[in-house]
């Protein structure tokens, strides 16, 4: 029995399913989850001292790679000053200023502790601001485990077959209208019937929780128009895409200005952080300026701010995202070639600098939830397990986007492509 297997057995005695977040349990791919001991640069090291090239990056935050010296130094310095005060600090303002500079649609920003808190608060704010109850989301998009948003959700909810979670009152879920991603006609049709009752549209501007689906040309523009016509708040959930697809996120990449933005992952540099922000006029409705209540004991925690701000400063270096774009393209071209060599139908999709999707399908491009559901999940599982035994750690689900990091070397990417060649030949 491997160390990971025995640790998993022990974990299951005390933790539901042995994990603190469901996708980690490997239910989407079978087998035993790997337990990790340490991580450095592009690599994760497991409890059996095996090394893996990492394409998950702690589900997004680690765009610099693991154990970056700059982050470690910032954290050590802050630890010496105290780990939290529950009172204002200079570093929070520095962080807020940096976010407002990088994401021009954000005039004011509030720090929270997770992506879930960020979307939950943005939805409450949109409802409080408009005085309306209904919201629109898209099938297969995941916005954290917020009650109103766990309706036809993606990510682990999709992987585990529970897109509509029990425990959410029907009287709440009925206010969530779920439409098809990239289908602007259905959005227009819905708004023509009830647009003036809809507080917000929340959307992943690149869908990353049903694999990786970029917005169809005109989709985000159309959402902006519809929201303007109906006084509806447009919320971009950039928890995943923020600072990843480009320095200014998906809104910077595609040139669309949302009213509110939810952030997470990279903004915390690996520590638990989220944020939501946007137009001054809307954000001024948040407590203590306005009546929409929102708070957090640990919000703006100085350790989390130190890791996050250091990350944002590092990725602001000129050329950072261009270099990542090249790395990601090199990886995807290589994987495509590897599949071709074995006659395997594989479609690859890249969103901006550091986000990608692999689809086992004959379709030349994948732009809808329906197409994602038609991909060959069984083949993905075999591919995943094969890559794992070759020392490559991909997301353990056919419905998650992949992430590249600045720590990946050309040799790491070559190793990954070589591994894929071997594995594809066995599929
Ligand atoms: N929104 C998106 C787009 C996400 O991908 C996630 C998490 N993967 C969340 C929200 C929720 O973030 P958290 O897990 O930090 O609560």
From TrEMBL:
Its EC number is 5.4.3.8. InterPro entries: 4pyrrol_synth_GluAld_NH2Trfase, Aminotrans_3, Aminotrans_3_PPA_site, PyrdxlP-dep_Trfase, PyrdxlP-dep_Trfase_major, PyrdxlP-dep_Trfase_small. Its main location: cytoplasm. It comes from the Bacteria. The modification N6-(pyridoxal phosphate)lysine is found at residue 265. It is an enzyme of class 5 (isomerase). One of its GO terms (molecular function) is glutamate-1-semialdehyde 2,1-aminomutase activity. Its cofactor is pyridoxal 5'-phosphate. GO terms for biological process: protoporphyrinogen IX biosynthetic process. It is found in: Cytoplasm. Pfam families: Aminotran_3. Keywords: Cytoplasm, Isomerase, Porphyrin biosynthesis, Pyridoxal phosphate. The keyword Isomerase applies. It catalyses: (S)-4-amino-5-oxopentanoate = 5-aminolevulinate. Pathway: Porphyrin-containing compound metabolism; protoporphyrin-IX biosynthesis; 5-aminolevulinate from L-glutamyl-tRNA(Glu): step 2/2. One of its GO terms (cellular component) is cytoplasm. Gene3D superfamilies: Aspartate Aminotransferase, domain 1, Type I PLP-dependent aspartate aminotransferase-like (Major domain). Belongs to the class-III pyridoxal-phosphate-dependent aminotransferase family. HemL subfamily. PANTHER family: GLUTAMATE-1-SEMIALDEHYDE 2,1-AMINOMUTASE (PTHR43713), GLUTAMATE-1-SEMIALDEHYDE 2,1-AMINOMUTASE 1, CHLOROPLASTIC-RELATED (PTHR43713:SF3). Homodimer. This is Glutamate-1-semialdehyde 2,1-aminomutase. It comes from Marinobacter salinexigens.
């Amino acid at each position: 029995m491997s160390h990971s297997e025995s640790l998993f057995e022990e974990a299951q005695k005390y933790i539901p399913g042995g994990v603190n977040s469901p996708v980690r349990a490997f239910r989407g791919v079978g087998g035993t989850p790997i337990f990790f001991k340490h991580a450095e640069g592009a690599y994760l090291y497991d409890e059996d001292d095996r090394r893996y090239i990492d394409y998950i990056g702690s589900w997004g935050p680690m765009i610099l790679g693991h154990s970056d010296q700059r982050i470690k130094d910032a954290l050590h310095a802050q630890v010496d000053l105290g780990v939290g005060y529950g009172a204002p600090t200079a570093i929070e303002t520095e962080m807020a200023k940096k976010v407002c500079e990088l994401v021009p649609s954000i005039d004011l920003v509030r720090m929270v502790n997770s992506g879930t808190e960020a979307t939950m608060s943005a939805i409450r704010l949109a409802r409080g601001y408009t005085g309306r109850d209904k919201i629109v989301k898209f099938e297969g998009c995941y916005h954290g485990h917020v009650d109103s948003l766990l309706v036809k959700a993606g990510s682990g909810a999709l992987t585990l077959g529970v897109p509509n979670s029990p425990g959410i009152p029907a009287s709440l879920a009925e206010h969530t209208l779920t439409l098809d991603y990239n289908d602007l006609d259905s959005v227009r049709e819905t708004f023509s019937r009830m647009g003036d009752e809809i507080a917000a549209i929340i959307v992943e501007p690149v869908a990353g929780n049903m694999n990786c689906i970029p917005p169809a040309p005109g989709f985000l523009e159309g959402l902006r128009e519809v929201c303007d016509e109906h006084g509806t708040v447009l919320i971009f959930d950039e928890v995943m895409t923020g600072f990843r697809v480009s320095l200014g996120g998906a809104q910077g990449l595609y040139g669309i200005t949302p009213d509110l933005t939810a952030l997470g992952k990279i903004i915390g540099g690996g520590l638990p952080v989220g944020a939501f922000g946007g137009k001054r006029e809307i954000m001024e409705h948040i407590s203590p300026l306005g009546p929409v209540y929102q708070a957090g004991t640990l919000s703006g925690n100085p350790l989390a701010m130190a890791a996050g701000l250091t990350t944002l400063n590092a990725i602001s270096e000129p050329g950072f995202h261009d270099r990542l774009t090249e790395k990601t393209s090199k990886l995807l071209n290589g994987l495509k070639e590897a599949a071709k060599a074995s006659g395997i139908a594989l479609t690859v999709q890249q969103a901006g600098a550091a986000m990608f999707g692999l689809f086992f399908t004959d379709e030349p491009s994948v732009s809808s939830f329906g197409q994602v559901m038609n991909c060959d999940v069984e083949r993905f599982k075999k591919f995943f397990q094969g890559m794992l035994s070759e020392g490559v750690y991909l997301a353990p689900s056919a419905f998650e986007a992949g992430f590249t990091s600045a720590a990946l070397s050309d040799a790491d990417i070559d190793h990954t492509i070589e591994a894929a060649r071997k594995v594809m030949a066995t599929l």
